[in-house]
Amino acid sequence: MPDDMPTALPSRDKDPERRAIVHALQRLLDGTPLRSDGRLTVVSLAKEAGVKRHVLTEKHTDLKDVFYARVRDQGSTATRSEAPELERLRTRVRELTDQTEQQRTVIHALARTVQALQTKLAPPTGDRRIPSQGFQPRVAPGPAEDHR
């Protein structure tokens, strides 16, 4: 859609189908849907207007384009009632991402410590088994080792 796409709605449209779409579009953008889930999508717009989706995607494409332009100008495809929940979830994702990064750092430090202890506890003969444990520790290959 071009950047110079007008976002104004036709004010005196005589076609009842177009009028229904215009009123539905306004209700969705205002966050006051009557017949749909209130999402800012063409499917919800069609349901809100009481028309089939193809009416918007094939017949009244200008109104569909105006709708998309208005949604883009609002900056979100979430309904106004969903905005606080969406922001809470975005904040939670940021927190979890930070927490994951911190845990990843700790895990790498612990892995280096384990590897150092395994090296220190290994018998001088090259046998990698720890005598008191009786098992072969798994050591992740280093960057220079072959991964085949």
Please characterize this protein's 3D structure.
- The chain is mostly helical and about 150 residues long.
- The protein folds into 2 domains: about 15-75; about 80-125.
- Helices cover about 55% and strands about 0% of the residues.
- The chain is built from 5 helices and no strands.
- It has helices spanning about 15-30, 40-50, 55-60, 60-75, 85-120.
List the helices and strands and how they pair.
Elements: H1 16-30, H2 42-49, H3 53-59, H4 61-74, H5 83-121
Largest sheet: none
Helix/strand order, N-terminal first: HHHHH
Our estimate of the beta-strand percent is: under 5%
The quaternary organization reads as single chain
Radius of gyration: 30 Å
What attributes characterize this protein structure?
148 residues; mainly alpha; 2 domains; 0% strand; 5 helices
Structure, briefly:
The protein is mainly alpha-helical and 148 residues long.
